[in-house]
Each structure stands twice: as structure tokens, then as C-alpha cells.
Amino acid sequence: MTEKNTALVSALVASVLNLPNDAVGANASMENTPQWDSLAQLNICLALQEKTGVVLDMEAIASSTSVIALATLIPD
Amino acid sequence: MRTLLLSNVNMQPLIAFLKPWEVVCGEFNSLLLDLSNPGSLAASAEISHVLCIYVGDTMMGDAFYGEGSPDQCETFLVALETFCAAHPEKIVVANTFCLGTGRWLNFADLLHPSSLRSAEARLNERLIAIAKDNANLLLVDTELLFRRHGEDALLSDAFWYLGRIRYSNLMFRSLAAMIRQAVDAYAHRSKKVLILDLDNTLWGGILGEAGPLGIALSEDGTGRCYRDFQRALKAIQRTGVLLAICSKNNQEDLDEVFDRNSMMILHREDFAAIRANWDPKPDNIIDIAESLNLGVDSFVFIDDNPVERELVRTAMPEVVVPDFPRRVENLPAWFLREIVPAWFGKYTITAEDHKKTTSYRVNEERRQLSRSLNLDTFLRDLEIECKLQVDPAEQINRIAQMTQKTNQFNLTTRRYEIPDIQRFLDSPDYSVVLLEYKDRFGSEGSVGLAILNLAESHIDSFLMSCRVIGRKVEDQILNKALDLFKAHGCRRIGAEFIPTQKNHQVTAFYESHGFSLIAEEQDGRKIYERMIK
What we know:
The complex is a heterodimer of chains A (76) and B (533). Chain A is mainly alpha-helical and 76 residues long. Chain A contains 4 helices and no strands. The model of chain A has no long low-confidence stretch (mean pLDDT 93). Chain B folds into 3 domains: 2-186, SGNH hydrolase (Rossmann fold); 193-347, HAD superfamily/HAD-like (Rossmann fold), CATH 3.40.50.1000; 377-531, Gcn5-related N-acetyltransferase (GNAT) (Aminopeptidase, 3-Layer(aba) Sandwich). Chain B has helices at residues 14-17, 31-36, 56-60, 71-86, 116-133, 143-149, 151-154, 157-163, 169-186, 207-210, 221-237, 251-260, 281-292, 306-315, 331-343, 351-354, 356-372, 375-382, 396-405, 418-426, 474-487; strands at residues 2-6, 22-25, 49-52, 91-95, 137-140, 193-196, 242-248, 271-277, 299-302, 385-390, 409-410, 430-439, 442-453, 458-464, 492-497, 516-520, 526-531.
């Protein structure tokens, strides 16, 4: 996982949740971000797939509920 | 415009791609319920557009796996038809049935009585029949998206089983673009003129260097790319798009191409205007706009040269200047897939569209005649014949199109869609007067329109196509309007002029036609009245 991927995921999550870019840091997750509900999680994963080309399986979509977890799904 | 999105699956991600439309999403799987329930949000006055975007496989239910019949699809079609008929004021958008490629009958599917391919065709036939009977139903052919991008790229199994989201973001993005373009096409918001460069755009190579027979235009190789591009241009010209040439070339060299190169698909008469000279292209585009009597904001400019594109973009930001494909082999497909739906989309094509180029070209001949004669002699020489029709229901598409497209000779610039026109035609409180024009050069088709609010003794809309401006035929439609008001018992006729950036030429129209100005608002709107005996 690189800083670049973390920054990419932070920006992507902010965009999907309609939040300012700096409102979603590397430590953001479903736990600590109220707008990040289960529907938002699906939208975030859809956007991540489109942006990076990575194809996510059900387990990854269901369990990768933080910026760090999502960033690890992107190959370096 | 407020839009409701209904589906039989989780279609919520589509909303983000439809921005800036204001879209609300119905409850999960509420498509049938919302269409059938007279008290639903779909039926309420606050919703102007209803999007019925469903997944066919899911709607087929067990029939997708060969069990039973697709009852839910039948129910949906009945509900859709009933809803469209009950709400002619709403625009309803529905996708076609496009079933997934996973077929339980595999190779036997084409011939088997339970064939999914046949079921899909039957359902789409029904859907098209409903759209033909209900002008407010707008269909979008989603199969085109699957053919272009492929099922693997557009469907998402993981999201389907986790959250009932069947599509990938590529599908949501593509589908949203398709819906937006179709709604624009339905509302006649397309561009009118396509201006084309010549060298390395209509053909390969430089005419001045290669000569009229040396340019790349053939049935094989690179020349075939340009010839297919010309075929596509000729096809969209038949839908009412005007083609024009703006090129740095000698006119005589271009004449030689038209006269001698048999590989040209497009001929001189296919162009409404031709400017082949060495003047700056923005000057030529302004000249074309003046000769066609159209605003440059209805123009799209295609040129392979990035410098020329940038020059036009900078000098005239109202003109749409798309980037040119990097590879010539992509030129025909790029044009038909990207440019046509984005800027020249059509949902219906009228008889006037077919002959539009001829009409504009003949206008050029009329202009030549007018230069040699004084106005009265010129008008007499034209041998004008006008036919007036009241409430011509069969012209509903053309009437809506005229309200959407006419800018210059348009007193109120009220834009109406087909359901609005249907309301006027059906109501005894309104009369719609349409003027057809012909002269010794040919027919212009329907070019004048007045929408009269008889109940309130008021001229709602009064407009003439720019093609006949200056030929004094507006008097005929106005006289007919006054006769209709009189027959309805009206004695005092109200009218108004609402200024826009484009209709300044009719600022004083009502004053010069016997109306008295009774008020002028701060925004420039003028209110008139005229008494009739």
C-alpha cells in the first residue's frame, strides 16, 4: 500500500460522500464517518473499481470499510 | 424539472451520474407499485419526468430459468401503458428489454419454444407499440450499450448479490448519458449545423498538393475511412442536420473535386453553405451563420487541425468544437457513437427534416433574386402560396419542434414539448394555427405557428421559421388568428413580446400590426392589446 493509493482512496471517498477533500483522511472509515453507510460503501467500491480497474469480490466489498483497507486492494 | 427514478433493483447509483438533474429515487423495487397507484409520487404533479429503468433478467423472474411465463414483464407493460395514457403531461423514459447472455437453453435457445431471445423480442415489440401510441413515452435502447462495452464491463455480480446493484459504474455513467441525450433529443435541443473542414477531415491528404483525384477517398484502406465518414454525414443530413464547409482551400479546387472525383459521397447540393477561401475560419463561420440566418450557438465545428479548433473555440465559445479522433480509422464510429447522440440526437424525424438542406440551399437562390429586385417585385416574383391549418394533430411533432427551435422570429419563446402541444390540440380553450409555405422555388413545409389561448383572448405564442422571414407571410397567420378569436366571441385580444438575446428583430412586431402597447415591464416584456370589431 502506498501513500499515493491512500490519497487516491481518500479523495474518492470524499467525492462519493460529497465531502470536502480534506474531510476524509487516511484513518477515515465507516466507523468514524457518519455519511459512510452501507449504501455509500457500495458506491465507494463501484467508484474504486471504475477508477482503478481492480475487480472486487463480495468479501472485499463487504469487509474493506476503511480508507486503509480499500487502499490495500489497489496493486502498487 | 423534477425526475423520479423507478426500478425493480437498486438503481440508486444512477442518480449521481444524472446531475445536475434533480432526481428522487423511488423505494426499492417500487416500479410496478408506483406506476399502478394513482396516489403515488409518480402520479403527483410535482414530478415532470418518470424514469423506469429496470433490469430485464430480474423482471423475467423464474421465466429467465425456463419456469413459467414472464408475468411481471406483462404486468409492467400494462402498468406503463396505463400510466403514460393517464399522464400525457409527464415524460416517461423506459429502457428496452435487454436480457443477459447467460441462457439456460444455450445453443437451443434460438429454436426452443421457451427461447429467451424470442421472449425479449416480443417484449420489445410490445414496448415499441406502446411508445408509438403514447408520444410521452421515450424509449432508450440499452442493448446498444451492451453491444458497445460488453456485458462483462457493464454488469457486476458481486454488487448484485451484496446490494442488488446490477450494474458497474461504467454502465451507470453510460446509461445516464444515454438518458440525458435522449431527453434532449426528445425536446429538440439538438444543434442545427455541422461545419466541416476538408483536408484530412472529409478526405485524406491536402487537396492543394494531391489534386482532386489524388486525395485519399476510396473503397479500401485510409480512403475508406473518409468515405464511410461521408456516408455517415449524408445519413445525418437526411435527419435534418445542415452540413456546411469551412476550409482553407481554393473554391476552384473544391469545384474540381465535386465535378471530377467519383469517390465523393457528398455532393455540392448536400451542403447548405460552402466557404472555401483563405479568410480566418471564425469570419467564415459568422458569414455562414448570416447566410443561413441561424445563431452560431446551433453550430458544431469539426476540423482535424488543433490550431484551427482552438482558434474557433477561443473566438466563438458558443460553437461546439469537439476534439478530432487521433486515429483516422476511428473517424466514422467516433462520429456516429459520440458526436451524433451528443449534439445531433433526434427522437422523431419530420418531413421537414428530410428536405431541410434543399430548403436552405433554395433560400440562397431566393437571396440572389432579392438582391436584383426591389422587395415588392421580389415577393410578387416568388409566387408565394400559403396554406393555413387549425389544430393539425398529425403535425404534433413539427409543432413541438418549432417551439423548441425557433429563436429569432419568436414573440414569446415559450418552449413546449409534445405533451404540452397535445394539451393545446385537445382543449377547446386553445387553437393552434400552422402555416405551410411554398413558392416557385419549392416548398418550405410548415414554417409559421400561432398558439392561441381562446379562453383568455390571448396570443400565447407567435413564431415564424427564420427561413421565411422578410416575406410578409406573418400577416396571413395573424389574420387567421384574429378570425379565430372573433369566431370565439373575443373582442379584445391580448399579446406580449418577451425579449431574449435573439428575438430583437420582432421587438416592434405587434406595434406594426395594429396592436397598442399598454404596458412595458422592467425586464423589457411588452404587453399589447388589439380590439376587433
